[in-house]
Amino acid sequence: MTFLGTSGAVPTTERNPSGIHVSREGEELLFDAGEGTQRQMMRFGTGFSVSHLFVTHLHGDHVFGIPGLLQTMAFNDREEPLAIHTPQATRRQLKGLVNALGNRPDFPIRISEVGDGDVAYRADDFEVRTFETDHDTRSVGYALVEDDRKGRFDRERAEELGVPVGPKFSRLHEGDPVELEDGTVVEPDQVVGDPRPGRSIVYTGDTRPTVRTIEVADEPDLLIHDATFADDRAERAGETAHSTARGAAEIASRAGAKRLALVHISSRYTGGVDDHLAEARETFDGEVLVPQDGQKLVVPFPGNEDD
Ligand SMILES: [Zn+2]
Ligand SMILES: [Zn+2]
């Protein structure tokens, strides 16, 4: 994944407004598209083959990049449809942004509203879940959750049992029993281990700390959380419906997250984010980072397995 924009509502020369690009086995997903998102995509080499755009809420710093991005996609003669997911009761407003282009692009754009508990997108082996967040407008967060993966195939054991190397191996791995030449039946659980958990990423968008973030995914590999302020402006965080780094870290800790990325950094912190890091680390034992724009992260499989 690539952090395209990590600033709060007002961008800085270092940080663009919100945008996160996720590339997963050839499929590209975009979460929020603040002003300038398309240029960030060019700078950081993500390409424009996004199939789904997930919008957390309709504040400008999360959506003003949509018209420009769509216009460039149209100039590129895009034909593939684009699905845009947006919180309930915001479809009309989002349509206004699409219509701001004047000429509607030739490729199909599907806009759908999503609410708490909805699966915004179900793919072959993962889904993107929606959860309600606590901001000062209609807002949701998203969790990309992979299905469990098949258990490990014990090749040695299969050979011991007399299974010939070849298609019977894959049938067993797929979960089907196979019959050997002497009539013996080998069951999958004799040679295939327990299913292994997939990966998960949770992105809150703008929010106060909320329990729904903890509930949406079990021990996420990565939690990307609003951390607009540090402790010095904790009161302001509550008033403006945002979080502090410490508040984000408490959620990460309670969710059992493995890594925490603090984003939506207020322009008041151009001097540095040392306080964000220190305060979060006091509260959360896992890895904490405040990504720069353009920073890329690979999310490994749980337990750092070799595949
Ligand atoms: Zn924002
Ligand atoms: Zn906002």
Automatic annotation (TrEMBL):
Its EC number is 3.1.26.11. It holds the Pfam family Anti-Pycsar_Apyc1. It is an enzyme of class 3 (hydrolase). Keywords: Endonuclease, Hydrolase, Metal-binding, Nuclease, tRNA processing, Zinc. Zn(2+) 1 binds at H57, H59, H135, D206. Residues 16-242 form the Metallo-beta-lactamase domain. Its cofactor is Zn(2+). Zn(2+) 2 binds at D61, H62, D206, H264. CDD domains: RNaseZ_ZiPD-like_MBL-fold. Binds 2 Zn(2+) ions. It catalyses: Endonucleolytic cleavage of RNA, removing extra 3' nucleotides from tRNA precursor, generating 3' termini of tRNAs. A 3'-hydroxy group is left at the tRNA terminus and a 5'-phosphoryl group is left at the trailer molecule. The active site is at D61 (proton acceptor). GO terms for molecular function: 3'-tRNA processing endoribonuclease activity; zinc ion binding. Residues 1-22 are annotated as: Disordered. PANTHER family: ZINC PHOSPHODIESTERASE ELAC PROTEIN 1 (PTHR46018). Zinc phosphodiesterase, which displays some tRNA 3'-processing endonuclease activity. Probably involved in tRNA maturation, by removing a 3'-trailer from precursor tRNA. Homodimer. Belongs to the RNase Z family. HAMAP family: RNase_Z_BN. This is Ribonuclease Z. It comes from Natronobacterium lacisalsi AJ5.
